[in-house]
Design brief:
heterotrimer, A alpha/beta (475), B mainly alpha (318), C mainly alpha (342), B: 318 residues, mainly alpha, globular, C: mainly alpha, ABC transporter involved in vitamin B12 uptake, BtuC
């Protein structure tokens, strides 16, 4: 029904997709699986017309078509169910159902909605506000809207994250019945289990390229292999310091922030540790880090900081938007990060900034405004802002968007500054990075820590299973 | 002074007619996610152009057309700079407020204190003869009828039509609109212009009916800010917004009545008082809304609504 | 940004705004040249008229300095008018005190200090409504403007009314010895000029050369990230509102003690709103502010001649000011769009 032929996409110099080809046939479900950053979301945005491809062809019923806007995609019957539903929370269920449709007759649409609900055994009250619904119900509504609009090609992005088992069952039944009606379905997922349950074929993406393709029945080991691209054993870092004094103690912390929140998380971080937080994005790692720094207050439980605020540093994933202040210069950031007198002269912090620029090889002058720096330089700047008295470094995706050299440099630097008194906690969706850099690993799944292990004592198989929600019991 | 209920109601309806139009216009604009702060200036400019064109053409109708067109033009400027070019809508709105006000005084100067055409009262046959209701509701000028019709009209449009749904969805989640094949920027631009033309019309209602004539000051200064506050006060719901406008009309009328009764208090106080009263009613409601005391906020929550999610933000298409 | 680019931007804004206004004038059959000459003549061609320009420049610059603080903190302080009025009320309160036994100079200084406090409190109130009550600072400020306007009317027509008959023309004049010294042939108090220059230099210094100024900027640009640097954005915003209000209050104090020598209903003369336009046109930067204030003051002073000599309404100056700001926003918008590569 649709065919992608050697689709590529560049963002500047970064190649997000490289010659990706796949076919989706009517009456079948095609799974796409891959780690975060493998290019899945770029691929979907191209298919829905949100962004344009840089190269390759898109065929619809063997006709070469350009998708320039979401409107074009809609017109040929492509409908997408977003992970974070693109709906209108303050409007009613019925309004949401009608939005974007051509027929505006509430009575009529109410009947159609009721009929669709009945078909799929969904239970939605048309008068409720969408914000009162659960994620699963919002998905159901969106799915019905797409079907009402005559979508023949459905794309689903991580449809089961954050929904209950009952809802998952309803959704799967709906998908199967749609498939039997001849729809072509593209299912994007992290979870091997649901791929196995639903899909007829699966394509594995890795680093923007196709890393594997299988038809049902699937070989699970091969799939994991392709996803995580298991390299010849790379050694975890030698433990430099024996885990020493506790620096941070989480006692039954729960929070409702974020996609999955945190469910009664307890753990102790000791000095000398490099703790890697593994898991699918939004499984609770970020909430964990922000609570550890003090940016978020948990809903229940207690965190004992055995350190002063001054000795903690947090580097967020979105460095420019959350970690730095666009509009200020490199030197101004250095002044802010250190205690100093009330007056700032043209010399204030200059020597230190120059020093930092040199040691951290930041491409810029002290007066460069930081929004003009590239990703690697921003990360090095953030690292240079961590003063010597910092004991606990918290980082989200420390090497996201960095090229190989920058990433390697970052880690070399972090390890070299780690003394017996200090600890690093970082989150990364990249298992390789977790395995190579951390001395201890915590795996997050749906807001809980499902695996807490020394790096030495685990392997890729166990980790990738834990991350994808297989054997989520502690071993 | 004799006060009869029907005449009081009638006076409030007249007094509040321009305010209703302006506040409903702003409601449309804000529901689409755009904040237009230029109301106070736009009303004045509309009042001026309405009066000038009506005087020149000797036709109040042409005056109203001119007033609405003036409002639409101001809205278009905001739409280009504040929506299309992505500059701060607040900044553009402020600049426009003062530019329009001074432009109105400057261009209208030759017509100041002149006699001009005025909208006549058109009692509706038969209906106006109904006791009580006739005097209160059916013996007005066209613009008052229009303001009365605009309330259900606006409500119907927003909540009962496809275009109204598109408008609301653009103010709620532009990305969601875009995903459904609707260009949210276009929707925002259209309703910024349309809403502003109602604001311009409100100006015409002042200079051609409620406070006839033109001058420096015209007498409608400050109303734009009240209209802006009313939109929040009314929780972005046309019916409640209009109710707020009538409440303000009542405050203004009470001011006029009271200054005759309390001669010891300077009359100016009564003219100014409705403004802070109105704004503080709004602030109290807002504070009540935030407060954690459930009992106290029960009725207040009924009164207040939440702003459209995208209000005042600039949408950048991917 | 390079100086050439800045100059180009200034030229573009000026040409666009003046071009539009000239076109309007020509359509109305008025020669833009005549207007230009009248405005210039009315503002800088005589010592007396330039004095008048300065009497506008002083409060305008004070209000603008206050706004620089609040804009830097990312806040819209619309309550400047009310803060000016409160400052004026504070100063009047002190200057109306009987039998203080203080020398006039001390009383005048005390009056100015009180005006700073009064305006600062009014600004702090708007800041408090925002941080504690979640009231948008635009509507909080606006409401407080209306309240201040009501209070000043009530004072003038009530408790502080003129001996004999209450009048909209204001309170009784203060005793002569409580007038700020103005040299013969001048219309503006040298003390006020010194004050405003000091305030401006201090503003520039605090904003650009202190740790506190840097914190304000950080909190305004990115409150979320500022917290990672140990900054409390709400506290910084509240402080900025208080300082901004204080400087606006000082403007009110100057108006009372140096210009009118009494409290009048229109004591704020809309300088609060005009200052908003000044700072917006300055692109929220410190350096251009006194120059733009001077330009706006010249326009305002010069336009007084328009009705007298040309029978044109003096609001033309406001039209030019508004057109400048709007074309400024348009040019910023177009340049940003271009640099984004559309």
């Amino acid at each position: 029904m649709i065919e992608l032929a050697e689709i590529s996409k560049n963002f500047g110099r970064v190649q997000a997709l490289h010659r990706v080809s796949l076919k989706v046939n009517p009456g079948s479900i095609h799974g796409i699986i891959g780690e975060n950053g493998a290019g899945k979301s770029t691929l979907m945005k191209i298919l829905t017309g949100f962004i344009r491809k840089s190269g390759g062809d898109f065929f619809f019923h063997s006709e070469n078509i350009d998708l320039n806007s979401p409107k074009d995609a809609r017109e040929i019957g492509i409908g997408m169910l977003y992970q974070e539903p693109l709906d209108f929370p303050q409007l009613s269920v019925l309004d949401n159902f009608m939005a974007g449709g051509t027929d505006f007759s509430p009575g009529n649409q109410r009947t159609i909605l009721a009929k669709l609900c009945n078909n799929f055994s969904f239970n939605l009250n048309p008068e409720n506000k969408v914000e009162e619904l659960t994620i699963g119900e919002r998905q159901q509504l969106e799915l019905m809207r797409l079907i009402r609009d005559g979508a023949k090609i459905l794309i689903l992005d991580e449809p089961t994250s954050g929904i209950s088992e009952k809802q998952q069952e309803l959704l799967f039944n709906a998908l199967r019945s749609l498939k039997d009606d001849g729809a072509a379905i593209l299912l994007v997922s992290h979870k091997l289990e649901e791929i196995e349950l639903l899909c007829d074929e699966v394509t594995v993406l890795r680093h923007g390229k196709i890393a594997g393709y299988q038809k049902c029945p699937f070989d699970r080991e091969k799939m994991l292999h392709a996803m995580f691209d298991i390299l010849p054993v790379s050694q975890p870092p030698a433990i430099k310091h024996i885990a020493g004094e506790p620096l941070l103690n989480f006692h039954k912390i729960s929070s409702k922030t974020g996609r999955s929140g945190l469910n009664s998380v307890s753990t102790t971080i000791r000095s000398g540790e490099v703790v890697g937080l593994a898991g699918v994005d939004g499984s609770g790692q970020s909430v964990f880090l922000k609570s550890a720094f003090g940016l978020l207050q948990p809903d229940s439980g207690s965190i004992s900081h055995l350190l002063e605020v001054k000795t903690r540093a947090f580097i967020p994933a979105d460095r420019l938007a959350e970690g730095l202040i666009p509009g200020l210069t490199i030197r101004e950031h250095h002044i802010l990060s250190k205690e100093s007198g009330p007056i700032i002269t043209s010399k204030s912090g200059l020597a230190k900034t120059r020093d930092a620029i040199k040691t951290y090889s930041i491409k810029g002058t002290p007066e460069t405004e930081i929004e003009n720096l590239s990703g690697g330089n921003l990360q090095r700047l953030l690292l240079s802002l961590i003063s010597a008295d910092i004991q606990l470094i918290l980082m989200e995706n420390p090497t996201r968007g960095l090229d190989v050299q920058s990433a390697a440099w970052t880690w070399k630097h972090l390890h070299s500054r780690l003394g017996a008194e200090e600890a690093i906690i970082f989150a990364s969706p990249d298992l390789e990075e977790i395995m190579e850099q951390s001395t201890r690993i915590l795996v997050f799944y749906n807001g809980s820590i499902t695996l807490d292990t020394q790096t030495k004592a685990t392997d890729y198989q166990q980790l990738s299973r834990a991350v994808t929600g297989e054997d989520s019991q502690k071993q | 002074m004799e006060i009869s209920i029907p005449s009081l109601v009638a006076a409030i309806l007249v007094m509040a007619a321009p305010l209703v139009l302006a506040a409903l216009g702003e409601t449309l604009t804000e529901k689409a996610g755009v904040v237009n702060l230029s109301l106070d200036g736009t009303i004045l400019l509309g009042a001026m152009s309405g009066f000038v064109i009506a005087s020149e053409s000797q036709s109040a109708l042409f005056g109203f057309i001119a007033a609405a067109a003036t409002g639409a033009t101001v809205g278009a400027v905001l739409a280009v700079i504040g929506v299309r070019l992505g500059q701060s809508q607040v900044a553009v709105g402020f600049a426009l407020t003062f530019l329009c006000r001074d432009l109105a005084y400057f261009l209208g100067n030759p017509y100041a204190r002149q006699q001009g055409p005025q909208l006549e009262t058109l009692p509706i046959p038969i209906l106006s003869k109904i006791p009580f209701l006739g005097e209160a509701f059916f013996s007005h000028s066209l613009i008052v009828y229009l303001s009365l019709l605009a309330i259900p009209g606006c409500y119907y449009f927003l909540y009962r039509t496809r275009q109204g749904l598109i408008l609301r969805s653009a103010g709620e989640n532009p990305d969601g609109c875009w995903a459904r094949g609707i260009n949210p920027l276009r929707v925002q631009i259209i309703y910024t212009i349309l809403g502003s033309s109602l604001v311009g019309l409100a100006g015409g209602a002042f200079s051609l009916a409620v406070k006839p004539g033109w001058g420096h000051p015209q007498g409608c200064e400050g109303i734009g800010w009240i209209a802006l506050a009313l939109v929040i006060f009314g929780g972005w719901n046309p019916v409640r917004v209009a109710a707020g406008a009538y409440f303000f009309g009542l405050l203004q009328l009470l001011g006029i009545y009271f200054q005759d009764y309390f001669t010891t208090i300077p009359a100016q106080i009564f003219q100014v008082a409705p403004f802070p009263l109105m704004i503080f009613a709004l602030i109290l409601i807002n504070l009540g809304h935030k407060s954690k005391d459930r009992k106290l906020t029960g009725w207040i929550k009924l009164l207040s609504g939440r702003p459209p999610k995208w209000l005042g933000k600039n949408y950048k298409q991917a | 940004m390079s100086i050439i680019l800045q100059l180009r931007r200034i030229v573009m804004i000026t040409v666009l705004a003046l071009g539009a206004v000239s076109l309007l004038l020509i359509l109305l059959g008025i020669s833009p040249l005549t207007i230009g000459i009248t405005l210039t003549k009315g503002s800088i061609f005589s010592w007396l008229k330039f004095n008048h320009v300065l009497t506008i420049w002083i409060p305008l610059l004070l209000c603008s300095c206050g706004l620089l603080f609040t804009f830097r903190a990312g806040l819209w302080n619309i309550g400047v008018e009310g803060q000016v009025i409160c400052g004026a009320i504070g100063a009047t309160l002190v200057l109306r005190l009987d039998n203080t036994g203080l020398p006039p100079a001390a009383l005048l200084s005390f009056a100015l200090f009180t005006s700073f406090l009064a305006g600062g409190l009014w600004g702090a109130l708007a800041g408090l409504l925002k941080t504690r009550g979640g009231v948008n600072e635009i509507f909080g400020g606006l409401g407080l403007n209306f309240v201040a306007q009501g209070v000043v009317l009530w004072l003038i027509l009530g408790p502080w009314k003129r001996a004999g008959m209450a009048s909209m023309s204001g309170t009784d004049l203060f005793p002569r010895e409580l007038w700020m010294w103005i040299p013969p042939g001048w219309r503006v108090a040298p003390a006020a000029i010194v004050l405003v220059v000091i305030v401006f230099l201090l503003t520039g210094m605090i904003l650009n050369a202190t740790r506190f100024g840097l914190k304000i900027k950080a909190a305004g640009f990115n409150p979320q990230a500022a917290r990672l640097f140990g900054i409390r954005p709400d506290l910084v915003g509240f402080t900025a509102m208080s300082i901004g209000g204080g400087l606006a209050g000082l403007a009110g104090g100057v108006q009372v003690s140096c210009v009118y020598h009494r409290l009048i209903p229109s004591i704020s003369s809309s300088y609060g709103y005009l200052a908003l336009l000044v700072v917006m046109l300055a692109g929220y930067k410190v350096t251009p502010v006194p120059i733009i204030c001077l330009l706006f003051a010249c326009l305002a002073a010069g336009s007084i001649q328009l009705p007298i000599t040309l029978q044109i309404d003096s609001s033309l100056s406001g039209v030019i000011q508004g057109a400048l700001v709007l074309s400024g926003l348009l040019v910023y918008g177009l340049q940003q769009r271009k640099s984004r590569g559309h």
